[in-house]
C-alpha cells in the first residue's frame, strides 16, 4: 500500500463533500479496493469510508419496491426475505467474510464484469440512486468496470421492483468463484428480463431474444431455437467464448425452471 | 481394544494445540533486535538482458540501508544441482550457474535482480520502485518443443536449452522397441502432467543475522531440511564455514517439496546481515510465492503399452519432455529421472521398460520435486494408458491390472525399471478397494445418476512408489551428490524425561506426536515425557530432513537404533544396580528386572543413576544416558495402493463432481493411524486439485496468467467428497526396524489418474468417444471434448 488519508463521514452530504478532494476514492466494504491497494495498483490520496453513513444502511419495502441502502452488506441482503431471488444471489457472493464487509453500492460502482449484483440490477430494471440523481439500470452499466457514475458521485441506494418470479443461476469460475456465467431472470407483469454477467467483454448485458421468447412462454423450452452469439464473449483460462455462449443458454434455462 | 499410547495408537497430535490456537512460532513471527527488512526487485519480463541498474535514487530514499544487485554476488558460488544426470551419449547434464541475484540476464518473471534493505518493509518497497533498471526484452522461451528446436537460449553460455537427454534402462532400449514393434496390440497415449504451484500456507521467509564478535551467522528460514540448506550455503554459495552457520527452521507452515531447496533470498539476507551488522528479514508475499517457489510436475509424455493377445503387458515405452524452468533447482534433475523412470514398471510384471526424458530449460519458474516428485508422473502415465488399453481390448480395467500384478510369492521382485520391491500384495489391496468402494453397487448408482441427467463414471488405479529416500550407496552410483541417511539423538535426562533430537523436520507431518510413540513403546514409558527437538542445526545431529515420505522410514529407524543403544546401556546400569549380569536384565513397561527374580529398578531410577553415578562402575560404564544413531536404508520402501473414484459429469456444463473417493494403501506397519489417515486425506485433496482444478498457465511471453487465487484454483472442502481411507492391508517393509513405508505422498500419487479415468468412463457411458482430456479436467475442457 501507499499512504493515504481516511475520512469517515456520517451523512451523505459530508461524504459528497469529502469526495471533492483530489484523487479521493469512495470505500464501501473494500473487498476489491483493499486488495488492489495492497498490491499498489491504486494510489488514492484519500479513502472516504461510507460505512458510517446511517442513511445508506439497511433496506425497506415500499409497496412492490425494495430499497436497499448503498452501504448495505451482502449478508444483510442475504438475510432479508422480501426479494428471495436477490437474497439468494447475495448469499452466494464470495464467502462469509466478503459478505459481512462487501456492499451493494460498492459492487455496482465497481461493475466487475463477473460480479453478481449487476445481473440482478439489470434484470430487475432497478434504479441506481446517487447523491445527485436517479439512473435506470439500463443506462447505468456501460461496459467492463464502466458505469454512468460521474467523478465523486456516490451510490446511496438501489431500488428494485419486486418481480412475480425470479431466479439467478451462477456457474462459478472455480478459482475466484465469481460468475463464469451468471444469468438473472425476472418475470414482471409487463414482460421478462434476462441479464447475463461474467460472459461478455462488454460486461453485464440483457439477452433480449430470450426475453422476447420467455415473455410469450415462460419455460425453458421457449429457448430451444435460440443461440447466443459467441462474438464478444470472454475467452480466458477458464473457458473460451463458445463455452460461455453455450453456458448462457444453459443457465438461462435453469433459471427459468427454478423460478417456476 | 485400540491402544491409547505407543505404536499403533491414534494419539491426538500434540503440536496441534499451538497450531490451532495461533501460538506456533513461524519465521515471520520472529523479530530480532535491530532487525531490518529486505524487499526484492523482480523482473516483470520473462527473458531479457540487463543493460543497466541505477540504484542511486533508491539508496537515497528514507530508511534505506543498502541496495544489492547481481554484481555484489558475481564472485560467489552458484546454487547447485544436487544430482548429476548423464545423457544417453554419456555427456554430463548442462549446469548453468544459478546466481544469488540475476546477473547479466533475467530468465523468468519474478527473477530477482536487486534487493533493498531498509528500516521498514514500506521503505524498502518504496525504494525498489526507485531502482532504475534497463532490461532489453528478449523473446521468451516457454514452449518446450520450441525451446529444443530454436536458437534462442535461456542460458547463452551452454548453447542449448536441453539440460540432458536421459535413457532408462538404456540397455533395454532395443529390446523394448522390438517388443512394441512385434506386439499383438499397442496402446498409445499422449498426455500432459500439468505444472503445479506448491501453495504452502506459509510463504517462504528468512532472517539472516550475524554476530561480529564471533563471526557466527544464523539463518532462520522456512526449510524442510536445515542441515541441507546449511551445507549448500557453506559448501557452494557463500563459503561460510559450517561451524559458523546455524540454520533454524522453526514452525514451518507446509512445504510439499518447495521448501526442500535453497533459494537465493536466504543467501542474500545472510550477506546483507554481515554487511550491515544487523538482522535482515524477508517474507514473501503471495505473488512472490506464485512466481518464485519451485513449481511441480510439468511433463509432456507419450507412453506406449505393448500387450499380448491375453492382455499380458510386454513393454512400456515413454518419451517425456520435462520442464526444469529457468534454473536448476536442487533436485530438479533427480525428479524427472530416478524418481520417475525407475517407477515406470508400476505394480506389474512387465518385462521391459524404456524411458526417455529430455529436460528442458524455459523462461519459467524453476520446477522441482512437489509432493510425489516424479512418481505421480509415472503413475499417471502408466495408469492412464492401462485404462485406455482395457477399453481398446474390451477388458475390465481391474481384471487387466490383476492379470499383470506382481504376486505375493514373487518378492523380492526385480522390476523391469531397475528397483527391487521387497514386499506387497496388490491383489489384496484391490480386493479391499472393491469392498470399501462398493464396486458392486456402481451400476445402481450410475442408473440413479442417469435418471437425474448426469453421467457417472468409475475410475480405478493401482500405484507403487519408492519412498524412504534413500540408500546412499545406491543413489551415489546414480548421480546423487548427497547421502540420504538420517540421524537421531536420544537424550535421557537425569529426572527420567527424554529429548529426542531428530534430523527429520516436521512441517505438518506430526513428528512431535509419532516419534515419541515409537520411543515410548520401546522403553515402556509414557510418551508425554518424551519431547522431539527438530529444525535447529545447533541442536540436532546432521540429518537430511523431510521429503520423499522418508521421515519415519529413515529418521524413525535412526530413532529406533539410538533407543536400542539407550536400552543396552540402561541394562548395564540396571545390572550393576541389581547386582546381576546385563544379559539377565529384561525391560518391560518401563521396569528393568532380573529374569526369574522379583528384583527390579524403574527406568527413572536407572536414568538418575546414570547422571548421579555414585557407587557406579566408572571403569566399565560411562556416566550419562545419551545415544546417537545414523541410519542409512538398505533399499527404498515401496508403499502401494488401489484407489477408486466415482464422478458425476453434468453433460450440459461439463462440470465434474467427485462423488466417491476410496484410497486403500499399504504403508506397512502404522505408528499413528489418525496421522496416516490425515496424510492420505491431504494428498487426495492435492491430487484431486491437480486432476480437476489447478492450472498453472504461462502465456507466450512467459507471463504467469494464474498468479493469484483469483485464477489458480486450490481445492476447497466443497470440491471434495468424504474420503474412504483404509490402510488395513499393510505388508511390513522387510528392511527397516519398524516395518514402515511412508505415507506422505501416496494420496497425491494415486488420485489423479483415478479421477481422470473416472471422467473418461463417465463420458464413454454417455456415448462420447473421448479417450483423453488433459488435467486439469475443467468444465470447459470436458465440454469441449464432448463437442
Strand content of chain B: 15-25%
The CATH class of the largest domain in chain A turns out to be: Alpha Beta
- In N-to-C order, the SSE pattern of chain A is EHEHEEEHHHHHEEHEEEEEHH
- Biggest interface, CB < 8 A: A-B, 16 and 24 residues
From the alpha carbons, calculate the radius of gyration of chain B and give it in angstroms: 27 Å
Overall form of chain A: globular
Helix content of chain A: 25-40%
- From the 3D structure, determine the CATH topology of the largest domain in chain A: Uridine Diphospho-n-acetylenolpyruvylglucosamine Reductase, domain 3
In total, how many beta strands of chain A? 12
Domains of chain A, number: 3
Shape of chain B: globular
The top level CATH class name of the largest domain in chain B: Alpha Beta
Which structural class fits the helix and strand makeup of chain B?
A: alpha+beta
Q: What fold name stands as the CATH topology of the largest domain in chain B?
A: Aldehyde Oxidoreductase, domain 4
Q: Architecture of the largest domain in chain A in CATH?
A: 2-Layer Sandwich
Measured distance between first and last alpha carbons of chain A: 48 Å
Set out the fold topology.
The complex is a heterodimer of chains A (260) and B (787).
Chain A: E1 5-7, H1 12-18, E2 24-27, H2 33-38, E3 46-49, E4 59-62, E5 65-69, H3 74-79, H4 84-90, H5 96-101, H6 104-110, H7 117-123, E6 127-130, E7 134-136, H8 137-140, E8 155-161, E9 165-172, E10 179-188, E11 191-197, E12 205-206, H9 208-216, H10 241-259
Parallel strand pairs in A: 1-3, 2-3
Antiparallel strand pairs in A: 4-5, 5-8, 6-7, 6-8, 9-10, 10-11, 11-12
Chain B: H1 16-20, E1 36-42, E2 48-54, H2 56-59, E3 64-69, E4 105-106, E5 112-118, H3 121-130, E6 132-137, H4 144-149, E7 162-168, H5 173-182, E8 185-193, E9 205-211, E10 216-221, H6 226-237, E11 245-248, H7 264-276, E12 280-283, H8 286-292, E13 299-307, E14 313-325, E15 352-361, H9 375-393, H10 397-404, E16 413-414, E17 420-421, H11 426-436, H12 442-451, E18 455-464, H13 472-477, E19 486-492, E20 498-502, H14 511-523, E21 530-533, H15 551-577, E22 585-588, E23 591-594, E24 600-602, H16 603-611, E25 626-631, E26 640-649, E27 656-666, H17 673-693, E28 723-726, H18 746-765, H19 779-786
Parallel strand pairs in B: 1-12, 10-11, 14-15, 20-21, 27-28
Antiparallel strand pairs in B: 1-5, 2-4, 2-6, 3-5, 7-15, 8-13, 9-10, 9-12, 13-14, 16-17, 18-26, 19-20, 19-25, 22-23, 23-24, 26-27
